[in-house]
Design goal:
Blueprint (H helix, E strand, L loop, with lengths): L6 E2 L9 E2 L17 E8 L2 E5 L2 H9 L13 H5 L7 E8 L2 E5 L2 H9 L1 H15 L8
Antiparallel strand pairs: 1-2, 3-4, 5-6
Length: 137
């Protein structure tokens, strides 16, 4: 299995691990993150995403890349320093159409201190760490 998506462990009815802790990725662009529902599940690139409703499933299916969190849902600031830290789906910033999650409120403040710089560093780091296990970094 690839390590490029931050997923929860445990059994999900789809047989694939849960991404975004079950939050609906489309909802970020429709007022803010809301928890999805297992009855609106969709597997994309080996991860299960939950959606609030069938409309959001259809929206995601039409253009998944538009709604996926950056850096596989790992903490954007963590990726900028070469680490894969858990991304909290309720602590985020949308920049240029990309959802950037952060580990916690303190890390989010560090991210906000230099958003452009952190994203630029993360964009450079991500290709070399995306397929590595978090524990190996």
């Amino acid at each position: 299995m690839t390590h490029s998506v931050n997923v929860s462990t445990g059994l999900i009815t789809t047989g694939f691990p849960l991404a975004l802790r079950g939050y609906d990725p489309v909802s970020y662009f429709r007022g803010g993150p809301v928890a999805g529902d297992a009855k609106h599940a969709l597997v994309h690139d080996g991860a299960t995403y939950y959606f609030a409703d069938a409309e959001n499933v259809a929206t995601f299916k039409a253009q998944p890349v538009e709604y996926l969190p950056s850096f596989g849902g790992f903490c954007a600031y963590g990726v900028s320093v070469g680490k894969k830290l858990d991304g909290d789906p309720t602590i985020y910033k949308i920049v240029e159409g990309r959802i950037h999650l952060n580990l916690n409120a303190d890390i989010h403040q560090a991210f906000l201190a230099d958003v452009a710089g952190a994203i630029a560093k993360a964009d450079v780091q991500w290709p070399s760490i995306s397929d590595k296990a978090a524990a190996a970094l």
